[in-house]
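Entry 12.
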Amino acid sequence: MLSCLTWSVCTHRVINAEKSEFNEDQAACCQISIRRREPGLEEDEEWLILCSTQYLTGSYWALFDGHGGPEAAIIASNYLHYCIKQKLEEAVGGITEVHPPMHLSGRCVCDSDPQFVQEKQIHAEDMVVGALENAFQECDEVIGQEMEATNQTGGCTALAALYLQGKLYVANAGDSRAILVLKDNIVPMSCEFTPETERQRIQHLAFLFPKLLDGEFTRFEFPRRLKGDDVGQKVLYRDYFMEGWGYKMVEKADLKYPLIHGHGKQARLLGTLAVSRGLGDHQLKVIDTNIEVKPFLSCIPKVNVFDFALHDIKEDDVLIMATDGLWDVLCNKEVAHTVRSFLAENRTNPHRFSELAKCLVCRARGKKTGHQWMLDDSHEASYDDISVFVIPLHNRDADC
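Predicted 3D structure (tokens):
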């Protein structure tokens, strides 16, 4: 069951500097109600009304940053929460137990089953994490089917937060970011997945399946694109198993286009994508080739967990979720400073969290000066779409 969200959340979105005709960012928030259900049993609205205390309720927020068009982001915003609900219901018998049983039926086929669960230290939160990972994968499959059926292309990043049983789960596949701004601390709740941050995973896949590169790319990383005069020279390089750098005698094959090329925001996977995890892009190929990008693009999120029972949450503590349009120009400390200053100056404003979201968007958007958008410090502003969630944490259980 999906119902209107009553836990106060605020989002503000903008098409920045008329970057695109349609905003490629999408957002979703709702409550997700999870109950034990036998396979094949249809939803029973009357049962939910009469037995409302017999299901778990979680709060859900998500941001999707589309590329190649908004279509994949729209599908994800309409479907990911359903996938999460479905996967949580499949595992609800384990989620409600401190130590999830080996068999949800309650049977103990082998005497060592309970011991295995304890030795592996499997807890309820591990079942939630697994449900989120499975949900992202299923949503990715649905997007692939929908896009193929409608002859559309494109993909999106996905950043989702789920509050369930006193814990906050943040699942990220892409380069959006979530942080907790607490009174005396900043807690990163996600990490960006880019071709650079996942270099070793991507290179290792190319090592295992070299045919994926179709002889057009080299998996090795070099400080720059090599030229013909580099052949026979020893140059710095890295392979999939290397954190450090070594020297390699350049061969003619090393002159091929790098699997990962560029640095920072200019880094591209197969010269095509700026992210290494996300949903969709099943039909995406490197231009003028038959090389598919999807095998290197993982849809599986990294999930971080925050246990509220271990922290003393204050009135102005918030979760900030935003697409890369915000983080391209503002770091965690700058965002946290804005959050704390704004909330301290607007304590009596009943709409202060909405206004804070708007403040963050406007700060990253900057002001138009001539043909450019500039920040207050005269640096160039973000030219990307910007979406921000500001989620107050203090009264989180009042409506859940």
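Annotation: The two ends are 14 Å apart (CA to CA). Residues 1-6, 47-52 have pLDDT under 50 and may be disordered.
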